[in-house]
Specification:
249 residues, alpha/beta, Rossmann fold, 3 domains, two-stranded antiparallel sheet, binds adenosine-5'-triphosphate, ABC_transporter-like_CS, nucleotide-binding, Bact_Polysacc_Export_ATP-bd
Length: 249
């Protein structure tokens, strides 16, 4: 998977005024970077798969490929079933539109038909606890309320395949319990779950298989416990700083 990257050349040694002037005037140079490569795997009905790897190893990029947000620039991807992606909780939101309008906007951004989200509007507003704010602008909601709304929309409908980027922190303690229960029921109802996570406790509890990514390539695929062991030895072979930042999550 190759993505365009934009690189701004900076020459800090010239002093800050010259640096800022150049940064403002010079167009960033576009280059292409390969983020994941030689990635080949199959996920079967009933599988709960963890994507493991150090920061920047390519887990989210691979999830974006699976959600359909990115198309592979080489190779192919075959997916059977409807997908539910819980990755970006504010996807499709527009702060100047009303709460109600944002439900439609986000549902559309998620690939849903207007008619498919319509029957769920009431329960989404109730679940998020913002029913009395339905015609208020989104920007008047608190950050927590917006997150609750995003979560409520994303999980309103059961799909076949669930794609998650970490567990998303979803507001206050009362909502967190509701969110966990909802998430668990969606996970239980999914034919396939793929979760990118650094939380090994969660991965052990949830997943029967795991894929370890390193520098954009697959380093291990197999039973969760075996792949976690590989991941641990990868972390142990890194500097103490890297170990602390990844194993503490
Ligand atoms: N849109 C993009 N354009 C250019 N480079 C990107 C883009 N998205 C990710 N990258 C780069 O691709 C690499 C992998 O990023 P990715 O987000 O997939 O990693 P990750 O394994 O999910 O990391 P983390 O555990 O930190 O969330 C990183 O080096 C990142 O800088």
């Amino acid at each position: 998977m190759t993505l365009p990257v934009f690189r701004q050349r900076s020459e800090l040694s010239e002093g800050w005024i010259a640096t800022i002037a150049k940064a403002a005037l010079r167009r960033p140079e576009r280059e292409f970077a390969t983020i994941v490569r030689n990635v080949s795997f199959r996920i079967d009905e009933g599988d709960r798969v963890a994507l493991l790897g150090l920061n920047g190893s390519g887990k989210s990029t691979l999830l974006h490929l699976l959600t359909g947000a990115y198309r592979p620039t080489e190779g192919s991807l075959e997916i059977e079933g409807s997908r539910q992606a819980l990755m970006n909780i504010s996807l499709g939101f527009n702060a100047d539109a009303t709460v109600l309008e944002n439900i439609y906007l986000r549902a559309t951004a998620m690939g849903m038909q207007i008619g498919a989200i319509q029957p769920h509007i009431g329960s989404i507003l109730d679940f998020a606890g913002v029913a009395e704010k339905a015609v208020d602008r989104l920007r008047t909601l608190s950050a927590g309320q917006r997150m609750r709304l995003g979560f409520a929309i994303s999980t309103s409908v059961q799909h076949d395949i669930m794609l998650l980027d970490e567990w998303i922190g979803t507001g206050d303690a009362e909502f967190l319990k509701k969110a966990r229960d909802r998430l668990q029921s969606r996970v239980d109802g999914s034919r396939i779950v793929v979760v990118a996570s650094h939380n090994l406790k969660l991965v052990r509890r949830l997943c029967n298989r795991a894929i370890l990514l390193h520098a954009g390539e697959i380093k291990a695929v197999g039973a969760t416990s075996e792949v976690i062991a590989e991941y641990r030895s990868l972390m142990d072979s890194r500097s103490p700083d890297a170990v602390a930042s990844t194993s503490s999550k």
